[in-house]
Specification:
By secondary structure, this protein is α/β, with parallel strands linked by helices. The chain contains 20 helices and 15 strands. It has a six-stranded mixed β-sheet with strand order 1-3-2-4-14-7. The chain is globular, with a radius of gyration of 21 Å. The relative contact order is 0.17. The site of beta-D-glucopyranose has 10 residues, from loops.
Length: 427
């Protein structure tokens, strides 16, 4: 099956229509404009919205019109479904939030436009690390622009709750279980979580990183090594997932949004959340401060490792000259220092420019950048599986099914799950 048939086969247009129609937010049409750029993304939670608003304002400042197509749904599955239906119908947006290996698939389909001119004029080859630049290129040409570096392996802790109970942020899995027991005994949900496939896999990949280490993580999700995928440590990772989901997450988690889970930690109903640093954006948007209201620590047992998640905007081929100019402007702005600073301060991530100065960022961002550099010096820097940096969307989807089915099946067998995981990854 070639890529276009794959995408077409995956999409039932009729079922997607209501989603696509309701997700368009009208923008003032009467302002004089040099051209319109439609941007499809899934940054619809409070902190995420604050981030994308920065881009919108800068594009509008340059005289272009921003047409917002924010499709709700953490992790972006719903947004990608809308994007596929738009593309199959011959009506893709000018820019879309696409990342990792998926950029190659869209490039292969012939949908993406060449950004080499804007890249050259703005020195992208100099300001981006070569490994990051490579992800943004299809067939040697830039087709996407990166906006940030998120770290996935974080644990978020409500500081006043921990202080009151006299407990400390856990650094090992055993400590995680111990503080969870104390929180539970105090009538507090230990781990705020939303029972959605991508959230389950976010927790699972942290456990894999913690139990197998960065080398094992790499062997499993990047090298697709069967012995690692089915080995005793992977079985242990599934058992740990069952322990967290069954003992320390509340029964109302099913379908809960990730940002509502963050809200539970913020209000002290829950003690911790396992989530990437877009969760920090929620704390920031609520005016909360790291070190006082919350703490950010690497997921227990993953100190020294950094699972990276680079958001990027891929640009689609367009015909209208005004829209093309707007698209080039957006691409230029996305890597300029002003946007990189303000956007990432709102978004919870760190700038993707190698020369970025984070001295005015909060303590979590400074730690993130220091840990990124330290991890990059050894084996610690790894692409996230749960957020589309390690594998193709097809593999990711198959892994999500295995992990979520296991998490929701009280009788789920960890050994069988590891075998199913191997099948999903090695397809
Ligand atoms: C994206 C983030 C986003 C998060 C929650 C991740 O996959 O990379 O930018 O905030 O999903 O929606």
């Amino acid at each position: 099956m070639n890529a276009i048939t794959r995408i077409a086969a995956a999409v039932s247009l009729a079922s997607l229509l209501p989603l696509a129609l309701t997700s368009n937010i009208a923008v003032a049409a009467d302002a004089p404009s040099k051209g319109t750029i439609e941007v499809l993304h899934w940054w619809t939670a409070g902190g995420e919205r604050a981030g994308i608003n920065v881009l919108q304002k800068l594009v509008e400042k340059d005289g272009y019109t921003w047409k917002d197509n924010g499709v709700a749904g953490g992790g972006g599955e719903a947004a990608m479904t809308v994007l596929k239906s738009r593309a199959v119908a011959g009506n893709p947006p000018g820019a879309a939030q696409i990342k990792g290996p998926s950029i190659q698939e869209w490039g292969e389909l012939g949908f993406l436009t060449n950004l080499d001119d804007v890249a050259k004029a703005n020195n992208w080859d100099k300001i981006l690390a070569p490994q990051i630049a490579d992800i943004m290129k299809y067939d040697g040409h830039y087709v996407a622009v990166p906006v940030n570096i998120h770290r996935v392996n974080w644990l978020w802790v409500n500081k006043p709750v921990f202080d009151k109970l006299g407990i400390k942020a856990p650094t090992t899995l055993d400590e995680l279980y111990a503080v969870s027991d104390k929180l539970k005994a105090a009538g507090i949900i230990p781990l705020a979580h939303g029972g959605e496939a991508w959230q389950d896999s976010t927790v699972f990949e942290d456990l894999v990183l913690s139990i197998l280490g960065p080398e094992g993580f790499h062997k499993a999700f990047v090298d697709k090594d069967e012995a690692t995928l089915t080995g005793p440590k992977m079985v242990q990772a599934f058992e740990a997932l069952k322990k967290l989901e069954g003992n320390y997450m509340d029964p109302d988690k099913s379908g809960r949004k990730w940002n509502d889970a963050t809200g539970l930690v913020m209000t002290g109903k829950a003690g911790m959340q396992i989530m990437g640093d877009w969760a920090k954006a929620e704390w920031t948007a609520a005016g909360k401060k790291s070190g006082t209201d919350y703490e950010c620590v690497p997921f227990p047992g993953t100190q020294g490792s950094f699972t990276y998640n680079i958001d990027s905007l891929a640009m689609f081929k367009l015909k209208d000259p005004g829209a093309i100019a707007a698209q080039q402007d957006l691409a230029k702005i996305a890597l300029e220092p002003e946007f990189q600073t303000v956007f990432n301060q709102n978004k919870g991530s760190i700038p993707v420019r190698s020369d970025a100065d984070v001295s005015k960022f909060d303590a979590c961002a400074q730690k993130s950048q220091a840990d990124y550099k330290a991890a990059a010096a050894g084996a610690g820097l790894q692409p996230t599986m749960a957020h589309g940096m390690a594998t193709s969307p097809a593999v990711e989807g198959a892994v999500f099914d295995v992990v979520t089915n296991f998490a929701n099946d009280p009788k789920g067998d960890a050994k069988k799950a590891a075998e199913q995981l191997a099948k999903a990854v090695m397809q």
